[in-house]
Specification:
Layout (H helix, E strand, L loop, with lengths): L3 H26 L2 H24 L1 H4 L7 H29 L1 H4 L6 H13 L5 H18 L2 H5 L9 H31 L6 H22 L3 H10 L1 H25 L5 H8 L2 H11 L7 H18 L1 H4 L1
């Protein structure tokens, strides 16, 4: 039977893929900083209410000194992923499109594996590593071949190489951030003050929001950033829609995921965002699926199969 952790991982991946489309549109309508100000504020309110309703008194316990280590590591995770990583992600998406930009998330498992070994002593056998590599190659073959790169339209947001660089940096940040989150969970469990996934997500988002607002205020650009929001109702609308799925649902589901499975394995499932984006582009935006894409999907599915059943195979 497939672990429930994998089901949560696939659900989180679907949410990221759905969110990529409205948030990419928003990033072309308003500056990314303005989008993040609204996005993180909305997500903080959403997670506060959800955590209060679902986790009750356990949620309010996180504001005590017993959860200091959790705030430290989950806070770092939130800053690395939701501020730095997402900034690079949205800049990459604006240049390359969600279908092409999300392909670079396949590099995240490598970062997650390295930081998982360093921070929480996680390991993965050779079958799992082979599965990761097959998944990465399969997904990257879908959208980053020469013909695919040449077919990317110029959205006036920057060059294709710049978009690829931003995507690589985003992948490194998101992989590392997942290991930082797992470290926070482990330390809180060891101190006998475990933390719920919604509370953990709330901490990550609050940390990201505080940094974004502090930097905007400190540089005197907070008012300008909000002015961009007032001037673009369409940008605000797309940001709100995207926020429900990312970070609202996706990040909460990812926190549940790493309670059950290895961070490198989880990040490999999350790296399948391009496959979900491909299907959304086909069914919703009526874009064609090439034979190369089909082969890439099959390779990625084989890689995921090896990851899920790696211990049984050995």
């Amino acid at each position: 039977m497939i672990s429930i952790g994998f089901l949560y991982a696939f659900a989180a991946t679907a949410c990221w893929a759905i969110a990529a489309f409205p948030l990419t549109t928003a990033s072309r309508q308003i500056p990314v900083t303005s989008m993040n100000l609204l996005r993180l504020l909305l997500a903080t309110v959403f997670l506060f209410i959800a955590s209060w309703v679902i986790e009750g008194s356990q949620f309010f316990a996180i504001f005590s000194a017993d959860y200091a280590k959790g705030w430290l590591w989950l806070g770092i995770s939130g800053i690395v992923a939701l501020v730095i990583g997402d900034f690079f992600s949205f800049r990459s998406y604006a240049i390359l499109s969600p279908q092409h930009g999300s392909v670079l998330t396949t590099l995240s498992p490598t970062s997650a594996l390295l930081f998982g070994i360093l921070l929480v002593d996680e390991h993965i056998n050779w079958v799992g590593i082979v599965g990761m590599l097959i998944t990465i190659v399969g997904v990257m073959s879908i959208s980053l071949g020469r013909s695919q790169r040449n077919s990317i339209p110029d959205h006036g947001q920057g060059s294709v190489p710049k978009g690829i660089l931003f995507g690589i940096l985003a992948a490194a940040c998101h992989g590392a951030a997942l290991a930082f989150s797992k470290k926070g969970f482990v330390l809180q469990t060891e101190s006998q003050h475990s933390i719920g996934p919604l509370s953990a997500t709330f901490i990550r988002i609050v940390a990201g929001m505080i940094l974004v607002y502090s930097v905007s205020f400190g540089t005197g650009r907070l008012q300008e950033a909000w002015q961009h929001l007032r001037d673009s109702k369409a940008g605000v609308k797309n940001t709100i829609i995207g926020t429900v799925f990312n970070p609202g649902l996706s990040v909460a589901l990812s926190m549940v995921t790493i309670l059950y499975i290895n961070v490198a394995v989880a990040q490999t499932i999350f790296a399948m965002v391009p496959l979900f984006a491909l299907l959304i582009a086909f069914f919703v935006y009526k874009e064609k699926i090439t034979a190369r894409s089909i082969w890439g999907v099959l390779a990625a599915l084989i890689g995921v199969f090896l990851l899920i059943w790696r211990n049984k195979i050995l």
